[in-house]
Design goal:
heterodimer; A: alpha+beta; PH-domain like; four-stranded antiparallel sheet; 11 strands; B: alpha+beta; SH3 type barrels; Substrate Binding Domain Of Dnak, Chain:A, Domain 2; five-stranded antiparallel sheet; 3 helices; 5 strands; phagocytosis (chain A); ELMO domain-containing protein (chain A); SH3-binding (chain A); ELMO_domain-containing (chain A)
């Protein structure tokens, strides 16, 4: 059979595709990318006997979202694509509009459902909007007597059409807003899709239109709260929080405070916690909660950036209060300020010093730096008022220490608040992507202040654990920062959870973690190609040390017990040792004490005559050793080239001697040493050598791959002689 | 143009084959003293190969500021290197007890040295460790 002729290579601009149409047989055509679409459609229509080809368009199949094929996207048509021939966007849009104007309710619902799907296609959306479709849809949405399904699909279509961003949200009038507010307030009476759309519409208007003020007036947080609480749709909840976030961002300072107050109420928080956070969170929901958290915590920015004003009576009172709470018992009766003033300012500055302020004469100066500004003072007073016992304990413990180890409460608190602001990125706008939010910040009216109270206690503990002095300020803070960020990483459910988790992550635990990280980094580095090569390079040197040691051992020699017929003979010994020039093994009988010299040993074998080393069961003399199994592993023999069958048989007194002798003989024969001892020795010596070779790389990143080698230097005219 | 370098020291972060004109081969971890530099190249010496001067690429070297080195750490480094030779001889001579004890002390010196370099210790802890080092070095020298 002749092989089929290979088809000639087709031009790359022609692809083979199938085109389908309802109630017609599919056509297989060659789709020429250089031929205008109208021409292709014309040909297709001719084949199917359709006369009005101008009313038709091609559409992609499911995998490409039913997009219409346009001159712009036609390069997405590939070999094997299946396209649909359908009415063109403009024809479809007009047909839909005709039905919406005069069709029956049933027809309208059917065609709106179709519209909500078609609207995601840009080509269609543009066509529909051009034909004034939006107005008709808007009229239906705004009609208070609108049938629910018509409402649902018109709203879905409307959002899809707006998604393309070709129409401004500014066009929407007040009654549209009122209608959407009405839908979310009476959410029980509408399908959830309508509620979802209404929320999105309002969020979009808040974000993109001047009309947001009307929404601000019309939407009540109580209504949104009810929605969060009762809705089972996570999309509704997510859109509700997005709307809250949008309103929050747009609000002026005064209104922001109001919103924050509402949000921090127990009622609101518990709804967020129980209805929202407890359910499985999608990425978008996590992001919205993150935004909400960032915005709420962001309210602290004002105080954080506010330098303490010398005329700020409230702040001065707070500083006094700190002193009074701490030193009430010490400085007179019941904290009567006038009484104390008689004691003079000298006394005060002594107390402020004990409180750990940098500037004990005028502690207000400690709050000049921003961040953290007066926010630090707020937190300190909060701690003193709400955790009085812990507060006085911390202050007294440190102010009564005589050594340099006191942890200055004032200074460390201010620095800690600064650190916390940094960790929580207070004052930075929410990022577009982040989904990191901490449920525990939704569990308290004053989450930040509570957070501070836990951390200041932790800080004190760590300070003590580290036996730090004021010079170690930064080091303690680097540990505390790690304690806090690692604990936050566990996403504690509430503040108590945070408190107990950070308590277990004490200084000791941090040190251990750091050590582990260092060790694993080291382990990772030890497999770096450069170190592996270095090891290979050092190996011969280490081997020669081991060989040297084994040969020295052989030169010193060993006293062996004599065996006969598999049993050790009492008090009968022989001695074997290597000559210092490694050429001869001398051996002969000996007593149990003295070490015979080479001359005293009557027998000898030349190393050069040795054929091989046998160990364990291979040895002839071990075959008789049935009784004493343990000795079998200690036996070894050497065989010779010149004497048939005869062997020199040894039974080592212990494993070490066995290892040393067998390694030594192998070394003499030029074989690799094989004992387990050898591996251990090698590892011990090599790992120490590598450690010492790398002493200077501590804290330096060893390059995993060889760095690039530059071009040769321009010349070799050195400044210094070699 | 080769420009003299003033008291510049570094450490090799990779093995350098040195296979270029006037090259000086280096192993990872080798410390180097840089005499002069030109473009992407250094010319200098490596204490492990005394009296040889040669070229190595800048990309293979991490520059170190020796003035910031803690004297106790520097002493540690030097002592460890000296002891390593003695330690290897103890191995060859099979002075097992000394060999094992010296190894233990060397490993603890290595650990302490690393902690000192880690710069996460407080003053107190640093002083304490420095004292330990000194007593261990005293022990070793005896």
């Amino acid at each position: 059979m002749l092989p089929k002729k290979m088809p000639a290579l087709k031009d790359s601009h022609i692809v083979k595709i199938a085109v389908q149409m309802a109630q017609q047989n599919a056509q297989l055509i060659e789709f020429n990318q250089r031929q205008p679409l109208t021409g292709i459609i014309q040909e297709l229509c001719n084949n199917w006997n359709i006369s009005d080809s101008e009313n038709y368009s091609l559409q992609f199949c499911e995998t490409n979202n039913h997009k219409y094929v346009t001159e712009k996207n036609r390069n997405e048509v590939k070999n094997g694509s299946v396209l649909q021939l359908r009415h063109s966007p403009s024809k479809t849009a007009n047909d839909i509009l005709d039905t919406l104007r005069s069709g029956s309710t049933g027809k309208k619902i059917e065609c709106l459902e179709n519209l909500s799907q078609l609207s995601s296609d840009l080509t269609f959306a543009l066509e529909f909007i051009k034909e004034q479709g939006l107005n008709i849809i808007l009229a239906m949405i705004e009609d208070p007597d609108c049938e629910v399904n018509i409402l649902k699909f018109s709203m879905l279509s409307f959002l899809e059409l707006m998604e393309h961003g070709t129409v401004s949200w500014e066009i929407l009038q007040n009654h549209f807003i009122t209608r959407n507010v009405n839908i979310i307030e009476n959410f029980g009476r509408f399908p959830k899709e309508s509620v979802e759309c209404a929320l999105s519409n309002l969020e979009n208007i808040v974000q993109n239109s001047m009309k947001y003020t009307q929404i601000e007036q019309d939407v009540t947080f109580e209504g949104l709260l009810k929605l969060l609480q009762s809705s089972t749709s996570s999309v509704v909840q997510q859109n509700t929080i997005a709307l809250i976030n949008a309103l929050f961002v747009k609000a002026d300072d005064e209104r922001k405070r109001q919103i924050a107050q509402t949000l921090s109420t127990k009622e609101f928080r518990s709804v967020i916690l129980s209805s929202v956070i407890s359910s499985d969170l999608g990425t978008e929901m996590s992001h919205q909660l993150y935004v909400l958290q960032t915005l709420t915590l962001g309210l602290l920015e004002n105080r954080m950036r506010m330098k303490m004003n010398a005329q700020d009576q409230d702040a001065h009172d707070k500083i006094k209060e700190l002193r009074r709470i701490a030193f009430d018992d010490y400085s007179g009766s019941g904290g009567n300020d006038d009484q104390m003033r008689r004691g003079g300012n000298v006394n005060f500055s002594q107390y402020y010093k004990k409180l750990g302020f940098k500037c004990d004469i005028n502690p207000a100066q400690d709050f000049f730096e921003t961040p953290p500004g007066v926010l630090a003072l707020d937190c300190m007073v909060y701690f003193a008022r709400n955790y009085t016992q812990q507060y006085t304990k911390v202050v007294h413990e440190n102010s009564c220490r005589a050594d340099e180890h006191e942890c200055p409460f004032g200074r460390t608190s201010i620095e800690l608040v600064k650190l916390l602001c940094e960790i929580l990125r207070i004052g930075e706008p929410p990022s577009e992507q982040s989904t990191v939010f901490y449920p525990m910040f939704f569990t308290h009216d004053h989450p930040f202040e509570e957070f501070f109270c836990i951390c200041i206690v932790t800080l004190n503990r760590t300070w003590k654990d580290m036996r730090a002095t004021s010079e170690d300020f930064l080091k303690v803070f680097s540990v505390v920062r790690e304690q806090i960020t690692r604990t936050l990483g566990f996403l504690p459910n509430n503040l108590d959870d945070f408190r107990s988790k950070i308590a277990t992550l004490n200084y000791q635990a941090i040190t251990t973690l750091r050590q582990q990280e260092r060790t694993s980094k080291e382990a990772c580095e030890s497999t770096a190609s450069s170190i592996v090569k270095l090891k290979e390079k050092i190996t011969p040197e280490i081997m020669s040390l081991i060989k040297q040691q084994r040969l020295n051992f052989l030169i010193e020699g060993t006293r062996f017990s004599k065996y006969s017929r598999g049993a050790r003979s009492k008090d009968k010994f022989w001695y074997a040792r290597l000559s210092p020039n490694y050429k001869v093994i001398h051996y002969g009988d000996c007593d149990e004490k003295t070490v015979p010299s080479l001359d005293e040993l009557s027998n000898k074998v030349l190393v050069i005559d040795i054929r091989q080393l046998l160990v364990g069961k291979e040895c002839p003399h071990m075959k008789e050793m049935r009784a004493r199994k343990s000795a079998i592993n200690l036996g070894f023999s050497i065989t010779f080239d010149n004497m048939d069958q005869s062997t020199l048989d040894f039974v080592a007194p212990d494993e070490t001697t066995f290892n040393y002798w067998t390694d030594g003989i192998n070394a003499l024969l030029g074989n690799p040493m094989t004992s387990k001892q050898m591996e251990d020795d090698f590892e011990t010596l090599l790992s120490m050598e590598i450690k010492l070779r790398l002493l200077d790389t501590e804290g330096v990143d060893i390059s995993k791959d060889p760095p690039p080698i530059p071009d040769d230097p321009e010349n070799y005219d050195f400044c210094f002689e070699s | 143009m080769w420009i003299p370098a003033n008291n510049k020291y570094g450490v090799a972060i990779h093995n350098w084959h040195g296979d270029v004109q006037c090259g000086l081969p280096l192993d990872v971890g080798d410390s180097v003293e840089i005499l002069e530099e030109c473009g992407d190249w250094y010319r200098g010496t490596c204490p492990r190969r005394p009296r040889t001067v040669g070229l190595f690429p800048k990309s293979y070297i991490h520059i170190k500021d020796l003035s910031k080195t803690d004297p106790v750490v520097a002493e540690c480094t030097q002592v460890l290197r000296e002891w390593s030779e003695i330690w290897k001889q103890l191995f060859v001579k099979r002075e097992n007890y000394k060999f094992i004890s010296l190894r233990k002390v060397m490993l603890s010196l290595l650990e302490i040295r690393r902690e000192l370099l880690g710069a996460t210790l407080t003053q107190d802890q640093t002083l304490e460790l420095q004292m330990t080092v000194i007593s261990k070095i005293d022990w070793g020298n005896r």
